[in-house]
Amino acid sequence: MDSEKIISELNYKAVRSSGAGGQNVNKVSSKVVLSFSVPASAALTDEEKSLITTQLSSRLTEDNILILQCDEDRSQLRNKDIVTRRFLQIMLEAVKPQKVRRPTKTPRSVIKKRLEGKRRNAEKKQSRKRPDF
């Protein structure tokens, strides 16, 4: 995955931020919306595209477009930088191969300890009973 090529394929759009901020919010378009089309990308291989679509399925639109936005800062340039870094981090995590889970067996000592504890508890309760003659 070549990050330089992917960055060149990103589409940015500046939008007015929502929320409090008064006159600055009304005048300045500081919020940045990033969109990236996974199927149209030339920088990704077919394997990477399929990995990304499965890993990020909940974040993609119906057309497999990833949309991220940032309005953390008052500066449009800083918001663009933040959203680009966030995008690259998401992509790297999606492409990273998942660890294979190897099922483990409960150790004998743990089983023995649990049964011993149960036996001791049963004896304790048994000793509390009234003796029958």
TrEMBL record:
<dbReference type="InterPro" id="IPR045853">
    <property type="entry name" value="Pep_chain_release_fac_I_sf"/>
</dbReference>
<feature type="compositionally biased region" description="Basic and acidic residues">
    <location>
        <begin position="118"/>
        <end position="133"/>
    </location>
</feature>
<feature type="compositionally biased region" description="Basic residues">
    <location>
        <begin position="98"/>
        <end position="117"/>
    </location>
</feature>
<comment type="similarity">
    <text>Belongs to the prokaryotic/mitochondrial release factor family.</text>
</comment>
<keyword id="KW-0378">Hydrolase</keyword>
<feature type="domain" description="Prokaryotic-type class I peptide chain release factors">
    <location>
        <begin position="16"/>
        <end position="32"/>
    </location>
</feature>
<protein>
    <submittedName>
        <fullName>Alternative ribosome rescue aminoacyl-tRNA hydrolase ArfB</fullName>
        <ecNumber>3.1.1.29</ecNumber>
    </submittedName>
</protein>
<feature type="region of interest" description="Disordered">
    <location>
        <begin position="98"/>
        <end position="133"/>
    </location>
</feature>
<dbReference type="GO" id="GO:0004045">
    <property type="term" value="F:peptidyl-tRNA hydrolase activity"/>
</dbReference>
<dbReference type="InterPro" id="IPR000352">
    <property type="entry name" value="Pep_chain_release_fac_I"/>
</dbReference>
<dbReference type="Pfam" id="PF00472">
    <property type="entry name" value="RF-1"/>
</dbReference>
